[in-house]
Amino acid sequence: MNMKARKYRNMAKSGDPCGQPLDRGTGGAQLQRWYWNQQSQCCLPFSYCGQKGTQNNFLSKQDCDRTCYEEVCIAFVGSGSGLLNLTRFYFNPVEGDCFPFDYRGAQGNENNFLTKKMCQETCKPSSSNKYLEFAASFCLMRADPGPCGRKIKRYSYDRRTGTCKKFIFGGCQGNLNNFESLEKCTEICCDKGYI
């Protein structure tokens, strides 16, 4: 790998390349590259002209998958805005599986799949250990109730005491140090030995 490619790859990871539109760039080159297509939620090939463009430009499908699938699959469930009430599926990296949620029809984020099968094919790991190790890093975050006004009992890991404690979740945003049960919080943050 040459230095330009290495520098570009690091630069791409520092921003949000997966949310940027496809831009073939300028110049006369015809370089095989990959980009994240938000509509189909997969990495697709394109011809890069060699200069400029956006950061949604990966040297290989593997680089694109590694960067964008992970971002999609770890995004907190987002109901979005609007008046619709559509059943969609999101991936919960703590649980390692896909669950239904009510989507309002606009905005939200990419962790939003039409079917459970599509969600699982995109996000479900072959080994749950990958996500359990990743999820353990969320245990170090402070409990975040989020900006919404619902009052939902949840549990979060408190790194000062080394135990899981109850907190009130507002129902949107927040972070993944947010468990539906004391047992699941304890399993992920206390019992696995990652912390």
From TrEMBL:
GO MF entries: serine-type endopeptidase inhibitor activity
Domain of life: Eukaryota
UniProt keyword list: Disulfide bond, Protease inhibitor, Serine protease inhibitor
Basic residues composition-biased segments: 1-10
Recorded GO CC terms: extracellular space
Membrane spanning residue stretches: none
The name this protein goes by in its record: BPTI/Kunitz inhibitor domain-containing protein
Native source species: Caenorhabditis auriculariae
Lineage: Eukaryota, Metazoa, Ecdysozoa, Nematoda, Chromadorea
